[in-house]
Amino acid sequence: QEEEQLEQKKLEQLEAAIGDDCRRMKKDIDAIAGGERVAFFDKDGKEVIVPQRDLGKKLEEWKAIYENAGCDQLIPLE
User: Fold this and answer.
1) How many CB atoms are located within 10 Å of the residue 50 CB?
2) Quick one: which of 34, 1, 21, 28 has its CA closest to 74?
3) In angstroms, rounded to a whole number, what is the distance separating the alpha carbons of residues 43 and 7?
4) Do residues 66 and 72 make contact, with C-beta atoms less than 8 angstroms apart?
5) Contact 60, 29 (CB under 8 A)
6) For residues 13 and 5, what is the distance between their CA atoms, to the nearest angstrom?
7) What's the rounded Cα separation, in Å, for the pair 9 and 36?
8) DSSP letter at 45?
9) Are 32 and 38 in contact (CB under 8 A)?
10) Residue 49, SS3?
11) By CB neighbour count within 10 A (0-12 exposed, 13-18 middle, 19+ buried), where does 36 fall?
12) Cα(14)–Cα(11) distance, integer angstroms
């Protein structure tokens, strides 16, 4: 039971630290996966054109970032 409480506390701390970011990323990933038109921006805020044929690759990149951030522990992708 102590392990469960510790795990719950870790999730609560993770939620407080990155919960909003995870929800935004999940929304973006769902939009890309759903075929919605989305805009991509580089770190300087300039729009980056991603051809339709490359969206699958971009989606996989975003999923990897999501998982590396620990978001999949809070909100599983699937």
Assistant:
1) 14
2) 21
3) 34
4) yes
5) no
6) 12
7) 36
8) S
9) yes
10) coil
11) exposed
12) 5
The H-or-E segment that residue 33 falls in is helix 2-33
Q: How far is CA 67 from CA 48, 49, 63, 73, 78, in A?
A: 23, 24, 6, 8, 12
- State pLDDT tens for residues 20-75: 899 999 999 999 999 888 888 989 999 998 888 899 999 999 999 999 998 888 88
Asked whether the beta carbons of 33 and 66 are under 8 A apart, the reply is no
Torsions phi, psi for 71 (to 5 deg): -65, -30
> Hey, what amino acid is at 24?
R
| pTM for this prediction | 0.74
Copy the structure tokens of residue 46: 């300039």
